[in-house]
Design a protein that fits this description.
The chain is about 30% helix and about 35% strand. It contains nine helices and 14 strands. The chain has a six-stranded antiparallel beta barrel with strand order 7-9-8-12-14-13. α2 crosses α3 and α6 crosses α7. It is globular.
Length: about 300
Amino acid sequence: MKEWLMVVNPNAGIGKVSRDWGKISGLLDKNRVDYQAVFTEGPLHAIDLVVEAIQKGFRKIVAVGGDGTMNEVINGIFKQKQQPTTGITVGMISVGTGNDWVRTYNIPMDYEKAIAVLKQGRTLIQDAGTVTFYNSMVETTRYFINMAGVGFDGLVAKKTNADKLMGKGNPLLYLKHLVGSLFSYKSCNATITIDDRVMHDKIFSIGIGIGQYNGGGMRQAPDAKTDDGLFDLTLIKDLSKWSVVANVRRLYNGTIKKHKRVETFLGKSIRIDFEAPILLEADGESLGHSPFEFNIIPKSVQVIIT
């Protein structure tokens, strides 16, 4: 059996993986990586591929794709029952449109440099989170390892992902929908419970971070530490449309928490109830609607870092 399993999502990066797989596989061979590749055939397929691979004996798994591919690999690791989750080593060759998980660890986008990181084998055991949400009144739970967003973030992610499915996209796709969605989105009253603290406010958007980045480089949780056993919650209260546009730069440079309508919190367990159904994204994947419950799973995923 090969040492590494490459879980390859051909559609990631709006087809970039499919176009670049020949180059990536050539570099893997050049660097004498002992690997087997499996290819996803649609949404959620990577979860099943990972479960099957661990049953066969694989212990080193690499997501070749975007944040959504990594998210499915992580969900497969938590779904399987053969090994403790920390008994599987996870790496990434990032070929997505957002590439947010790798940003926190400064993992290179360059394929050969990313392969060098894999071969170096330096690891860290980071936190994961669960989010419980609803789809057509059916309660569902998903694992994530980077960041979740509710409210405005959820709407922008839904529009962005719809464009990706139709083969449309570029590095500014998220920003395009961020600005465009301002004219249809309305803030909503919410009850937010962080551990034992309860708050009521009118909310524009909430980011729940394990890592620091989302939305293709927005540093929405700039102080997040991936292994401290806590979520970093960034709560953006009701803002005017023009205030959002004027402060987009703060989302990218990590100063969003300095805005007077933004508050940040730390917590292990978070519940969010809105007066109307509000959308959710986690690790860039559009998932469902409110109410939401988030719980941290401290030091539960072994990942390869720089």
